[in-house]
Amino acid sequence: MSVFNGQNGRAGDASASSTAAAAESAAPASAGAPGSAPRTVMILGKTLRFKGELSADEDLVLLGQVHGSVTHTSSLTIGFGGVVIGDVRARVITVKGTVEGDLEASESIVVSPSANVVGDLIAPRVSVVDGATFNGAVRMPRPVAVDSAKTGASPAASAAGEGVLADKNVDKLLGAP
Question: How many domains does the chain fold into?
Fold first, then answer.
């Protein structure tokens, strides 16, 4: 019988492999898409306790606790056991843990069955999967996909996420002669 339970002298392998497995299950689905370039994913482990404003630019998987706001320019996953007490802003947000605060995404928010969210969701695409605990409001502004200068929409309408196009500009967008 081995002193290290048959791990060839590596006592820390069990916790390292369990953390890697947890991170893999929490990773964004798009991170390993076939044919895509490798993406940098930062994993903040389950022992992390952070107070303050957190910001990042690479994909992020949060398994620990953050007490404060999170501002992110890419994909943010709050994994199983992850907790955020504060507002969250990112391009894409996936919640598998707990969030107490408003979530705002420029593309989409997914609230998984294991999630517990208390706060408002603001994104063009929102998915609350059956089994999730959610208490808040949902606002789904229209995504601004086309620049108002090119379409003839008023600047006020573009700022509000709404656009009114002149007939000639609609024809241009649709490729009509």
Answer: 2
Based on the fold, state whether residues 83 and 111 are members of the same structural domain: yes
CA–CA separation, 51 and 69 (whole Å): 9
- Cα–Cα distance between 144 and 65 in angstroms, integer? 33
Q: For 149, phi and psi rounded to 5 degrees?
A: -65, -30
d(CA 65, CA 54): 11
pLDDT tens digits for range 74-106: 999 999 999 999 999 999 999 999 999 999 999
Give me the pLDDT at residue 3, please: 40
Average pLDDT over residues 29-39: 53
pLDDT digits (tens, 9 = 90+) for 108-137: 999 999 999 999 999 999 999 999 999 999
E runs forming strands in 11-136: 41-44, 49-51, 54-56, 59-62, 65-67, 70-72, 75-78, 83-85, 88-95, 98-100, 103-111, 116-118, 121-122, 125-128, 133-135
Residue 57 domain boundaries: 38-139
Please check whether residues 125 and 42 belong to one and the same domain: yes
